[in-house]
Amino acid sequence: MKEAECSVIDRAVERMIQVMSNHGLRITGQRRTLARLFAEASGFLSAKEVYQSLEMKHHGLSFDTVYRNLRMLQELGVLEQFNFEDGMKFRVGCYGHKHHHHHLICLSCDHIYPLDYCPMEHLTNLPAHFQVVKHQFEIYGYCEECQQPDNKPLQDIVSV
Ligand SMILES: [Zn+2]
Ligand SMILES: [Zn+2]
Ligand SMILES: [Zn+2]
Q: How far does residue 151's CA lie from ligand 2's centre (Å)?
């Protein structure tokens, strides 16, 4: 690994550790390994994948503990959670986008682009009898580098 890449990862790990300790979490070896795992991952990780990597280093770790940590880190904004057809996955949160935001997700390279614009604010025809408490909105497609002539836009997923 190149030195420059190394320091980018170290900074990402420190940033995650910092948020955890700001929220009064004890920085255990396990949480440090977790932060490094996500900092080094180029894409999304499922809870199972995280568990499998952590378990190699921290024997006796339970899946429940890993899952609870993932959910907690997601609530703190350290990680973000995404729902894919093959299940829920996590990745490092968009730094500097702590507030509510959405994403453009590349189906080929797992790159994500934060979208500060919230489409909900522009929905005017919601039924009045329904009390909305939350929403999800992600846009899937191909980034500039991954665009191929046969990667046609997925109309049914993209349309609002
Ligand atoms: Zn984000
Ligand atoms: Zn891409
Ligand atoms: Zn929104």
A: 11
How far apart are the CA of 26 and the centre of ligand 3, in A? 32
Tell me how far apart the alpha carbons of residues 128 and 125 are, in angstroms, rounded to a whole number.
8
What class is the 3-92 domain?
mainly alpha
Architecture of 102-158 per CATH? 2-Layer Sandwich (3.30)
What's the pLDDT at 157? 53
pLDDT tens column, 86-113: 899 999 988 776 678 899 999 898 889 9
Q: By the 8 A CB rule, do 139 and 158 touch?
A: yes
- 3-state class of 92 per DSSP? strand
Q: Positive or negative CA dihedral for 147, 83, 134, 70?
A: negative
Q: What is the 3-state composition of the chain as percent helix, strand, coil, each rounded to the nearest 5?
A: 40, 15, 40
